[in-house]
Amino acid sequence: MDERQLEAIEIAADWADRYGELDEAERRELAQWLSERPEHARAFARIRQVLSDTALLEAADTVLPRDRLAADLPRSRSAPRTHFLRPHEDGPLRLGRRQALAAGLSALVAVPLGGYVLTRGETASAPHPLRFASDVGQRRHVVLPDGSNMLLDAASSVAVHFTSERRGIALERGAARFDVRHDAARPFEVRTPGAAMTALGTSFSVDRLSDAAELRVFSGRVAMAARGQAPLVVPGRQWALFDGRGIDKGSFDPAAHADWQDDWLDAESMRLGFAIERLGRYSAAPIRLGEPALASRTFSGRFRLDQPEQSLALIGALFGLQPRKRADGIYLVAV
Of 66, 41, 57, which is closest to residue 101 (Cα–Cα)? Predict the structure, then answer.
């Protein structure tokens, strides 16, 4: 491992350990640093992987003998932001977590540890990807390891698998918008159970529903591969919805209809079942249909997501339905 890689690991260790405390200016600084060189993003992703796993943290939070310290501690031309050595009068030097990560990861990246092989291009085989989630009623902004921006809708979660060859996102629940940093050498792909969306330099959102996946492209183009369907490329200002049987397509105005990103449920011939799922991300009480057969009925209109019960009542009125509170949630039922 050369000096530039060691320097990247040392700086990445500091960024990764402070990630949850960064303000907006620091996040922009991190995004700039990640975009400067490919090894920056790789080092950051590796250390985030270590931080997400307690077994690897225990291996990094260690006591290094003084004769090992000189060989293991990265030496960078520019001093790191903070020093974490804690000297002991007699005996070895004990390293704090960030400096232990920086000093010890040079060994960890080449040595299998507890089923992990953190060598270049092999992080995808790790069983514990980075995971991000948002709470009910709360959206969350995340700067991804490659400098791309992700906005999670309320009650949503993703698993992030980034390697030196590809950038993979598994949308586990809910919805997310991605403003993707261009990297021709590493495709950026978002997967749901029935479809995969690959960015071709773009800004787009993906919504995972119980039996469907919706893609909205705000700019650029996105390739969509859905199970049992011919692949297609969706350009900016277009949407595509795969429901397991086929793909519906249409257009929208990103400036006027940013959908959940602006606290609105924009329904254009939307299925009632999909609307219930989306409103449910903003409701403390689960929202359900009294009759599952009603899920396929469609409607149009704009409704506030941050006022889920009021919106539910307005939508229900279109079908002669009313919300009723029960012990296990709110049900939309016939009057």
Answer: 57
User: What are the start-end ranges of the H helices in the chain?
Assistant: 3-17, 24-36, 38-51, 54-60, 66-72, 97-108, 272-280, 308-318
Domains, the chain, in order of start with CATH, read 3-120 (no CATH), 130-251 (2.60.120.1440), 263-334 (3.55.50.30)
Q: What are the angstrom distances between the C-alpha of 78 and each of 11, 75, 84?
A: 10, 9, 16
Its pTM surpasses 0.85: no
Mark the ranges of the chain whose per-residue pLDDT is less than 70.
1-2, 48-128
Residue from 241, 15, 150 nearest 160 by CA: 150
Q: Are 188 and 197 in contact (CB under 8 A)?
A: no
Asked if residues 48 and 16 have their Cβ atoms less than 8 Å apart, the reply is yes
| Helix, strand or coil, per DSSP, at residue 54 | helix
Q: How far apart are CA 98 and CA 139, in angstroms?
A: 29
